[in-house]
Design brief:
The protein is α+β, with helices and mostly antiparallel strands. It has 3 domains: 88 residues, Rossmann fold (3-Layer(aba) Sandwich), CATH 3.40.50; 132 residues, D-amino Acid Aminotransferase, Chain A, domain 1 (2-Layer Sandwich); 59 residues, ATP-grasp fold, A domain (Dna Ligase, domain 1, 2-Layer Sandwich). The protein is 30% helix and 25% strand. Strands 10-9-8-11-12 form a 5-stranded antiparallel β-sheet. A 4-stranded antiparallel β-sheet has the order 4-7-5-6, with no helix packed on it. It has a 3-stranded parallel β-sheet with strand order 2-1-3. Helix 1 links the parallel strand 1 and strand 2. Helix 1 crosses helix 9. The longest helix is centred in the last third of the chain and has 18 residues. The protein starts with a strand and ends in a 5-residue tail after the last helix.
Length: 306
Amino acid sequence: MTKHVAVLMGGWNSEREVSLVSGRGCADALEDRGYRVTRIDAGRDIAQAIAALPERPDVVFNALHGRFGEDGCVQGLLEVMGLPYTHSGPLASALAMNKVVAKRLYAGVGIPCPEGRLATCDEAGLPARMDRPFVVKPNREGSSVGVRIVEKNDNDDRLIEDDFRYGREVVVETFIPGRELTVAVMGERSLGVTEIRTSEGFYDYRNKYTEGGSRHIVPAPICDDATARARDLALRAHRALGCRGVTRADFRYDDTSGEPGELYMLEVNTQPGMTPLSLVPEQAAHIGVSFGDLVAWMVEEARCDA
């Protein structure tokens, strides 16, 4: 019998709209592949919504992004319910979402990261204690939500109240010059390296999800040594966190003094975007894996960790 897949999308955080687009695209692709699909616009009553379905799903495709969706909360709930689900489990998801904790793990397996520190909301209005230029970003958010860059010539280097609108903690870290790179991992395989170039500013939420906001170059026009190292570091981070399914590792590549340059891990996304503008489907297509093949593989790989 064809598998019944419940696709969770939406949610109630800052990434709701992106999740809806991801979820609809994945649901459509799964239906095209012959799966029986139920779409669920997830609220805080996720468990009740799943339990109320006329037929218990065989698999849950988790297309939620951001808090509660990719930080281990929903994953833990699905573990309790005994429902196999896509992407990483509770522990890996929670670790990856906490940027400071994840960086400690990366350091333990030889993955370089930008220097930085954790700041709390008690420091609002105080100097950031970091040489300019530096980056301020929420410790537990995705899609570059709430990220700002303090440039070298900016007069004010204080943390501001608005920095803490997504939580009580932010990461303050050195800005790495150079290029933006990303590597998708599918199971135990890194798919390739993409360079991201923006039309204006850095790769923020607007540039990520606005048509024309960024340009993706696959494969990235970097030297072979840098390509191999980026792919190795992405796979190493995937394993260090204990991830499964599909992830995406984001890097800064400082080649300002020539190639090969220095790679710095920014973060691992355990539930990367699956929209028409998203990077993972684009990398998969480049190596001959269609969007339908990708989401079907994710469903077939779904499981509980417990």
